[in-house]
Specification:
With 363 residues, this protein is of the alpha+beta class. Helices cover 40% and strands 15% of the residues. Helix 3 packs parallel to helix 5.
Length: 363
């Protein structure tokens, strides 16, 4: 018999096996490799659910791994009264609930205290990873080959601000809102998964919506918008040349700069410029490689450490609204491999070739 560790390997998702007639076999009769494929076909969507529940890509991976192990071990008791997918979600939800019982909730620096004037500002002490909502690559939690409208909705549901707002909810409200609002389950299906009544699910949804309505979240521009692509081309050009005036011309006046694992955050174009000309000068001569992260544009920021060598520094999450950059979030110490980025760059390895950036935006 295949071992449980082999059964839950982190290989790319595979389709559920089918019979020669094209029909999906009875899930209660699957064994061996067929069972592995059937379970693993749900890995990405389960990772997305667990990420929204937990606010961390690495914790979501751990939760899904535990889900797969539990499913493999308990499969002989799966009687098919619900779909295999629903059964896996029930296990994943229980795993996540166990993991969020700690009173510590993940947040963004902006929810941990007021902004700091740049004059005399220091990054301060490093806070533990579990204090912050962490970034995640879109491809780990979203099927990017799906219907464009559905992909766009899914991207909205992994924005940093939305995931941070979810962390404010009690576990049951969080589950109900993700399942009903994001994954479009019926309240009756959620009630069955949570082993409660439809009235209880609707009540949890009402309270969750009220809490989220109090969250301050900008409506971000779609990443597929040609105007945003032009803006980002200007951004990469300005950042890699370290032309701070050109960079500032791309920002909205209330732009926010954050740097987990530090709680320090800055607001406004003046403090943004002062930071990058002061403490942030270490970013000079950096290189950027693009990555789709948290439903928006992002970059792997590599610092120059020697002649012809750049090493990972931070994952940048760049948020755009109203044609300007409003969020510049830098996650230091993140594993670049989780974003499909190389461990270092040499001379000539930089952001992909692109047409010359258009003239700067009007001030």
């Amino acid at each position: 018999m295949t071992s449980s560790s082999e059964a839950v390997s982190r290989a790319p998702s595979a389709p559920v096996p089918s019979t020669g007639s094209g029909t999906v076999p009875d899930p209660t009769s699957l064994t061996g490799a067929d069972l592995e494929h059937a379970l693993d076909a749900h890995r990405r969507e389960l990772t997305g659910f667990c990420y929204r529940m937990l606010g961390s890509g690495s914790e979501a991976e751990d939760a899904v791994q535990e889900t797969m192990i539990r499913a493999w071990r308990a499969y002989d008791r799966f009687e098919g009264r619900s779909s295999l997918r629903s059964w896996l979600y029930r296990i994943a939800n229980n795993v996540c609930v166990d993991m969020v019982r700690s009173p510590q909730r993940r947040a963004r620096p902006m929810e941990m205290g007021p902004s700091t004037p740049v004059a005399g500002a220091k990054v301060g002490e490093v806070h533990p990873e579990h204090a912050f909502v962490q970034p995640v690559a879109d491809e780990r939690v979203i099927d990017l080959t799906g219907d464009p409208a559905m992909v766009s909705e899914a991207r909205d549901s992994i924005r940093l601000a939305f995931v941070a707002a979810l962390q404010k909810l009690p576990a049951r409200q969080r589950s109900a809102l993700i399942l009903c609002e994001v994954l479009k389950w019926q309240a009756s299906e959620v009630a069955e998964l949570l082993e409660t009544s439809v009235a209880s699910v609707n009540s949890a949804l009402q309270r969750a919506r009220a809490t989220l309505a109090e969250s301050d979240r900008d409506q971000l521009d779609p990443t597929v918008d040609p105007e945003q692509q032009a803006l980002l081309a200007r951004y990469v050009d300005a950042f890699e040349r370290y032309d701070i005036p050109a960079l500032v011309s791309l920002l909205r006046d209330d732009v926010v700069l954050s740097m987990p694992p530090f709680t320090l955050w800055l607001e406004g174009t003046d403090d943004f410029a002062a930071w990058f000309l002061g403490e942030g000068i270490v970013c000079k001569d950096g290189r950027l490689l693009p990555v789709d992260v948290n439903g928006t544009a992002g970059y792997g920021n590599y610092h120059k450490v020697g002649p012809d060598r750049w090493e990972p520094w931070a994952i940048q999450v760049i948020e755009v609204a109203d044609g300007r950059i409003i969020g510049h979030h830098n996650f230091l110490g993140v594993d670049f491999a989780e974003f499909g980025l190389p461990p270092h760059l040499g001379d000539g390895e930089r952001s992909p070739d692109a047409p010359p950036p258009p003239p700067p935006l009007d001030a």
